[in-house]
Design a protein that fits this description.
single chain; 114 residues; Yope Regulator, Chain: A; six-stranded antiparallel β-sheet; 27% strand
Length: 114
């Protein structure tokens, strides 16, 4: 079940045409029923049946949720909320410009707080 998500995540990242320095940091791997995105070995996001989640600073998460561009990330109903993550709305996850900006924020946030 995870294989399609791994392919989708890999393709989505490739299509963003990130700088080679960022591409060198990123790796997609199997993750339970989906795929996880790692930056320099640290998890920064996931693509699963519930959608695309990213690890982001609190102010960015709050802004996305307030604007309706994201929700708290839960991997299944009644699961605990994944702290420090936001589940992106489909419109944001499918917008290359917005996703590229958020991905850059996520990479910096995770690497600076490791």
């Amino acid at each position: 079940m995870a294989e399609p998500y791994l392919k989708m995540l890999s393709q989505k990242i490739e299509e963003l045409n990130l700088p080679s320095s960022d591409q060198d940091l990123l790796e997609c791997k199997h993750f339970f029923s989906g795929a996880a995105l790692y930056a320099d070995g640290k998890i920064i996001g996931s693509l699963t049946p519930v959608g695309f989640g990213l690890k982001l600073p609190a102010d960015v998460r709050e802004r996305l949720i307030k604007k309706g561009d994201g929700t708290e990330l839960r991997y299944f109903e009644k699961a605990p909320v994944k702290r420090k993550y936001v589940l992106l709305s489909e419109s944001v996850a499918d917008d290359p410009r917005a996703l590229k900006e958020l991905l850059d924020l996520s990479i910096r946030y995770v690497l600076e707080n490791a």
